[in-house]
Amino acid sequence: MVNIEAHAYDVVVIGAGGAGLRAAIEARLAGKKVAIISKSLFGKAHTVMAEGGAAAAMGNVNSNDNWQVHFRDTMRGGKFLNNYRMAELHAKEAPDRIWELETYGALFDRTKDGKISQRNFGGHEYPRLAHVGDRTGLELIRTLQQKIVSLQQEDKAKFGDYQARIRVFAECTITELLLEGTGAKKRIAGAFGYYRESGEFVVFEAPAVVLATGGVGRSYKVTSNSWEYTGDGHALALRAGAKLINMEFLQFHPTGMVWPPSVRGILVTESVRGDGGILKNSEGKRFMFDYVPDVFRKQYAETPEEGDRWYTDPDNNRRPPELLPRDEVARAINSEVKAGRGTKAGGVYLDIASRRPAAEILKRLPSMYHQFKELADVDITAQPMEVGPTCHYVMGGVEVDPDTASAGVPGLYAAGEVSGGMHGSNRLGGNSLSDLLVFGKRAGEYAASYTDELAARPKIDDTQVAAAVEAALSPLTREGGENPYTLQSDLQDVMGTLVGIIRRKGELEDSLRQLAELRERIQKVGATGGRRYNPGWHLALDLRNMLVVSECTAKAALEREESRGGHTREDFPKMSATWRKVNLICSLSTEGGVDLAHQPIPTMTPELLGLFEQSELAKYMTEEELS
Amino acid sequence: MTVRQFKVWRGDESGGQLNDYQVEVNEGEVVLDIIHRLQATQEPDLACRWNCKAGKCGSCSMEINGMPRLGCMTRMSTFEEDETITVTPLRTFPVIRDLVTDVSFNYQKALEMPAFAPPKDVEPGEYRMQQVDVERSQEFRKCIECFLCQNTCHVVRDHEENKLAFSGPRLFIRAAELDMHPLDARGDRKEIAQQQQGLGYCNITKCCTEVCPEHIKITDNAIIPMKERVVDRRYDPLVVFGRKILRRDQLTSTAVAEPAVHSGPVTVAEGAAPVNFSRPLSGPPGPEVNAAGHVNLNEMLSDRAAAASPFGDDITFPVDPKTLNYYHPGGADH
Amino acid sequence: MTTTATRPIGARPRAAIEAKTLRTDRWWLAPLLTVIGLTAWVAYATFRVFMQADYWVGAYHYLTPFYSPCVSLGCVPEAAEFGRFLPDSPLIPYAALSLPFLLLFRLTCYYYRKAYYRSFWMSPPACAVPDGHGKYTGETRFPLIFQNAHRYAFYAAALISVINTWDAVLAMQSPSGFGFGLGNVILWINVIMLWAYTASCHSCRHIIGGRLKHFSKHPVRYKLWGFVSKLNTRHMGLAWTTLATLAITDFYIMAVSAGWINDLRFIG
C-alpha cells in the first residue's frame, strides 16, 4: 500500500506564477484556507521571464490613454477574435491591479512627477507598459511572493503558524483533478499529485481548484518556455471535462535568439525595438517597410525618416513598422529567411548597436545587455543580434466565464496563460502580465465565493486516487519502456516542423498521424531509477499532457482554414470574416481522443462596437454583422 | 564538437560520490546543457533543478569546479579543453539528491523577515516616488533568489550552528531594500537587521558579491550601508546616551519565532517550526547520586522529605519551552 | 486529516563531499599577496615610527607623514607645528597623537577588514574555501564589535588629513622663500591620495548621503553621494595606493634628510 499524504483546503491553486499567486492572495483575503502548488521552487515561475512590462491604461505618460483605447488595441491585436468581455474587464481593471502591487511593495520605474512610468510597446497606441528596467516579470513575481509572505506573517501573529491559511507546496506536481459525481452534477473534489523531492504522493481535498499552470511551449523545440510549460493545466481541465478554446493560436515571439545554439529560444524583448532597434536581413536592408499589412497602413510610418522621427516626436509622426504586432513581425522574418535573406543560423539581424550610443543602450536595456554578454559573449552595444521566431505564448486555453474565470466544471477555475479567449488570435506584448493580475484576482475571488455557497464539501473518491497512483507509478514499473527524453524530442520535432509558425494542410494531417503514433509510444514510456527527485520519471508523467495539448493544437489548426494572428495557413493566407465568428472548442472524447467543435463567438455589445470606426470593423466582420 | 571529462556528484543524504562521465560538448554551450545531455543520454534520473535557462530564475545553482555558480551562466568556453569539470551540489544546504539541495532555510528566513509596511494614509494609485529614491532598492530587487550568496557565505557554510541566528546576504539586501524604500512605514529595520537577522555575523569578506550572478553589490550597497545605519542607532555614543536618558529605546516587538499556545488540530509544515531541532541539548541533569553511584534513598541524608526527582532537583517547572527541542505547532484554522 | 511530517532546519545532512574545496584556480594567491604586502608595510612603518630620526628636512620644511603632527618633546622645534607636549621616550612615537587613530582607521576600514580576515584570519581564505576556525561569531561581540567604531576613526582620519595637507602647504618653501621640489610633488600626491582614500570610505559615503531615505529632497547631498560612491568603488585600490604613497613619501624624506640623496629642486 502506498503512503499518501492528505490535506484539506478551501482553495487549491495549481501554479505559482503571477496568476496563481494573485488568485491565492485574493482567496486568502476572502478568508479561505489556500494551498499553492508549485512545480518548481517558490518564486521561480515562468513569469520572471516577462521583460517588457504590464499594460495598464493609467495614462501616466500620455493622458489621452484610457480603458477604451486599451480595449481597442487589445481587440485589434487579437484580430477581433477575443472574448470581448474579457478584453473589456482586462482594460478596465488593469490599472487598479498595478496600483495594488505598489501597496505590496513593488518598485516600478517612475515618471518625473513620481508616478509609475509607462513605455511604448508593439500594438499599444500610447505608452502603456508599467515596467522596471527590463525585468518587470521578476518584479511582479517577487512582489506577489512577498505579499504572500506578509499574509503568512499576519496569520502567524493571529494563529501562531505561518501556514495557518496559506501554504506553498513547492516542487509538487498535480497529475489528476479529483471529481465528485458524474454528468451535470460533476464537481471538483480535490487534486492528486506527487512531491518531486521525495516522490511521495499527496492528495488535496478541496472544493475549488484554480488552474494557473501557464502554457504549452515545451512541445516545441525552439521555445522561450521553461520545462514546466507542459500544458498540465490544459490537460487537467480536459480530463476533468472542461473545454479548450482557440488552441490553434500560438504566439511565436518574433525575436528569439537563434545564435549561439545554447541560448536558442531566449527572447529579445520588444523594447529593443521600442527603443530604436531595427530589423535587417543579411543584405543589410531594413525590410519591415515591405510588410505593413493594409489594416495597419494608417498607423505606421512609410519611410525610415518618419519612423526615426517618431522616437522623439510620437505625436506628429507614425511609428516605425518594427513595432507592428508580433505575428506580423514574426511572419515578416519568416518570409525573409525563406527567401534566402536570413543569417546562416536561420534568423535576421536585430540592430540597436548602430542606432543608439552604448551608454543609452546600457541604461535602457541593462538586463538584456547583461544576458547577452554573460550567456553568449555578444555585446549588443557593439554588434547586431541574430533573432528569429520562437514559440512563446499560447493564446488558447481553458474556456472560462469572463467574469468569474470559472471553467465550466463547478469548482474549477482558470487564470493566466492557461485560460483562453482574452487575447483572441494574438496577444499584445504587456497584456499577459496585466491579464494574469486581473483574472488571477477574479479567479481567486470567485473560487472563494464558490466555497461559501457550498452546502457540503465534496468527498474524494478513493478509486480515483487509486487509479491516479497506478498511472503515476506505471512508468517506473514498466520494464524496458521507451526513454522519455527521446519521446519528448520526437514530439517537439513533430510540432516544430509540422505545426510551427507557417502551417499547411498536408503537414497538419501528417502531424496528426505522427501524434497518433506518439500516443501509442507514450503509453509505453518507462523511467529508470527511484521516486526521489527523478527528472526522467517526472518527464514521463508530463508527456501525456504535452501530447493531448499538441493534438488539440494540430486538430484546431487543420480545421481553421484562414490565417489570423497566431495561426498562419499557407494555403489560406487571408483572414476570413466568416471564420472570425467561430471559436474552435476541444474536449476529450470518451475514448480519450480529442473532439473538435465549432462554437459561435459572443457578440459584442453596441457600446463597445461604437468604440471602433465602421471602416475598421469592415476589415474584420461580415456584411450582416455590420448592419 | 569535442568529448570532455566531467565529474558529477551523485548521491543523497546517505552518502554519494563523484562519478566520471565523458560528454559531448558543442560550441557555445553552457554547463547546464551538458547536464541535460547527460540526462538525455546516460543518466535519465540525474536530479538537477532548472527553469528558464537564461539566468533569470536562479534555479540551476550548483558548484562548478568548487565555485558556486549558475549552470546556465557558466559557458563551457571558459574552461580548457582538457580540463575535468567537477559539478557538485550546493554545500551549505542539506542534499536531497544529486545536484538538488533543500533550500528551505532561505524561505524560512524570508518568512521571518517583516514584510513591506505600506504607508497608512496613501491610497493605491496615489504612491508618488522619485526615480532617484527607488533606484537603490531597485538594485536589490534584481535578486533572482539563486541563493548562491547564501551558499557561499562562510558564516553558515562553515558553521551550521549559525543558521539559527544568521539570515544571510539575500535577506540583508532585502533589509536594505526595505529600509531604503521611500514609502516603507517601518522605522525599525536597522534594529531588526542587527538583532534578529544577525547582521553582526557578517565580516564583509565579500564572497556574496563575488558570486552574485546579477552583479548586485551586496556588500558595498546593502550590508555596509545597513551596518552604518545600525551604527547610527546603536553605537553612536551620543545617540545611545540620549536614548538612555529619554527612554526611547523600546523597540516594537516583531513577530518572530515565539511559540504561541493554542488548541486545535496539529499541522506543522516543513520548516515552520522556529526551533532548530538538531541543536544538541544537554539532557536532564539526572538525580543526585551518592559516592556509590546510587540515588540516596535515606531520608535522613536527604535535604527534602520526598524522594529525589529522577530528572534532578535543579529543574524548576514549568520548563522554559525555549530550552527544549520542541515546538507547539500552530494551525488553528481548521 | 493527517499531520505533515515536521522537517526542521538543518536536521538533514549535507552532500558528503570529501574534498574541502574543489576550486582548481589559484585561490590562495590573493590572500598570500595580502599577507606579504601588509606584513612588509607594517614592518617598515614600525621601524620608521620608532626610529625617531631622519623625519625632517629643515631646508625645505619637509615632514614625513609618519611624524605628523610632531608633538613630542623630542621633536625638532621647527617641525613641531602644533606644539611639543608629549614626553620624549623611545617607546612613544613622535606622532603618538595621530598614529593610533590612523591605525584604527585602517584596521576598521571595510576593505582592510576583508583583506586581513581573509588572509591573516583565514575566515575564509577565499570564497567556497572552508575557514580555519571551529567557531565563528563574526563581529557580534567583543572585541570585533568595535569594528563598528569605524565612523569615529573616519572623523579623526579626516582631521589628520587636514594636518597632512597643512604640512604639504608649509613644505612649499626654501631658505630663500617660496620653493618647490620633487619632495613637494611627492608630498602633494600623497596628500591627494590620502584624501581620496579617506573620502572613498564607506562611512563617509554613508554620512554624506547614504543615510538619507529620500535623495530627491537633498539634491546637493545626492550629488556628493554619487561622487563618493564613484570613489568608493575604488576603495581597495586607494587603500593599497596610499600605503605605497605613504611609504614612498616617508622613504624619500628619510633619504633626503639623511643626506643619501639631494632633493630635486624646481624653484628655490
Largest binding interface between chains: A-B, 82 and 79 residues
| Quaternary structure annotation | heterotrimer
Structural class of chain A: alpha/beta
The count of strands of chain C amounts to 6
Total DSSP E strands of chain A: 23
Q: In what range is the share of β-strand residues of chain C?
A: under 5%
Strand arrangement in the largest pleated sheet of chain A: 7-3-2-11-18
* Coarse structural class of chain C: mainly alpha
Helix content of chain C: 40-55%
Computed over alpha carbons, the radius of gyration of chain A is: 23 Å
Just name the CATH architecture of the domain at 252-391 in chain A.
Alpha-Beta Complex
For the residues shown, what is the average pLDDT of chain C?
92
Q: Looking at the structure, what is the overall shape of chain A?
A: globular
Task: Give the helices and strands of chain C as they follow along the chain.
Answer: HEEHHHEEEHHHHE
Widest sheet: strand ordering of chain C: 1-2
Beta strand % of chain A: 15-25%
Averaging pLDDT over every residue of chain A, what do you get? 92
Q: Tell me, what's the shape of chain C? A: globular
- Distance N to C terminus of chain C: 96 Å
At the first level of CATH, what is the class of the domain at 252-391 in chain A? Alpha Beta
Query: How many H/I helical runs of chain C?
Result: 8
Give the arrangement of secondary structure elements:
The complex is a heterotrimer of chains A (627), B (334) and C (268).
Chain A (H helix, E strand, L loop, with lengths): L3 E5 L2 E4 L3 H12 L4 E4 L16 E2 L11 H11 L6 H21 L13 E2 L9 E2 L5 H24 L6 E4 L2 E9 L6 E9 L5 E5 L2 E4 L20 H9 L3 E2 L4 E8 L13 H4 L3 E3 L23 H7 L15 H13 L9 E4 L6 H7 L1 H11 L8 E10 L2 E3 L12 E3 L4 E2 L10 H23 L8 H16 L6 H15 L3 E2 L1 H18 L12 H25 L8 E2 L7 H4 L1 E7 L5 E7 L5 H4 L4 H5 L4 H4 L1
Parallel strand pairs in A: 1-10, 2-3, 2-11, 3-7, 11-18, 17-19, 20-21
Antiparallel strand pairs in A: 4-6, 5-6, 8-9, 9-10, 12-17, 12-22, 13-16, 14-15, 15-16, 22-23
Chain B lengths: L1 E11 L2 E11 L5 H11 L19 E4 L2 E4 L14 E4 L6 E3 L2 E2 L2 H9 L18 H11 L6 H5 L1 H4 L11 H12 L8 H7 L11 H5 L6 H18 L1 H10 L88
Parallel strand pairs in B: 1-5
Antiparallel strand pairs in B: 1-2, 3-4, 3-5, 6-7
Chain C lengths: L28 H21 L6 E2 L4 E2 L35 H9 L2 H10 L30 H21 L2 E2 L2 E2 L1 E2 H18 L2 H9 L8 H14 L2 H23 L7 E3 L1
Antiparallel strand pairs in C: 1-2, 3-4, 5-6
